[in-house]
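Field reference: sequence -> structure
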Amino acid sequence: MVGVVSDPVFMNHDTGGYHPESPMRVHYVHTVFEPGDPGILMVDPVRADESDIRLVHSKGHLDRVRRACVPGRYVSLDPDTVCSKDSFDIALLAAGSLIRLVEMAVAGEIDCAFASVRPPGHHATPNEAMGFCLFNNVAVAAEKAIASLGVTRVLIVDFDVHHGNGTQDCFYSRKDVLYFSSHQYPFYPGTGGMHETGAEGARGYTVNCPLGARKGDGEFMALYERVLLPVMRAFEPGLVLVSAGFDAHAMDPIGGMQLSSRGFAALAGLILENARQAGAPVVFSLEGGYNLDALRDSVREVVEVMKGGQAPKVRPSGFRELDDICEVQARYWPV
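Structure field:
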């Protein structure tokens, strides 16, 4: 059974008429989840307690976001990140809904889960909102799982086209949370070089895979088979969280990659199968993806695999950067 949070309430985070991170994103994704689907359990959104947000973010950060949410105005926290009247409450719902799905997955009430929530989160640092993100939903859920749910090791897989600098910052000195990111580089936000591998005492627990533009399904499959899988098997996570950004799609107006909707489903299948072998539940959380049709179709393909459908077959294709990435990671993992 796939647990899903998908609700029109997430459209209430109003970013203005021309912002790429628009309310229509979750509206399009919502059409994927048909009423009465026996493979899906719809879960009501849940508001996070502010103490849960404080597991990751400072009180000052919470207060800045709260103050930016005023009636009748758009307030910019940075050139890309906009707040409106309901943004603080919706951001609490996004983080809280992901926590709820993690609780259900860890308890065995569902097999895996997909949180179609916004605002996204992986650029939000402990003290700063940026890159469309207010609170780091995945980081909050990881901390909650460790603090309260008996999980000792969390793997975060981030396939958004942008590097999740906020998630990296949260766990750069940690060994109980391993952060793996495949992202276009150089690109916003400018972080995520392959030699960024963790702070002293946690080397290897940040796995950055920076990729030149125009990589497609075959290149991503080769990367995930050669790097992610041996890392995952050696790390033995008790929970896998996926920062599921779909802006590496060939149709995306912001990114410069060439993944297809079926390519995302193939990556999801690889993650799900290997997490299943480790006995770790997998929870996906929506990050980027700004072509509405590509976003909807990609989520549909991924959810079909989550429900037990066969993952598409993608032939791995080697590329120039892969050997360099493997050389760096082989210092820490059996890559």
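Note: The radius of gyration is 18 Å.
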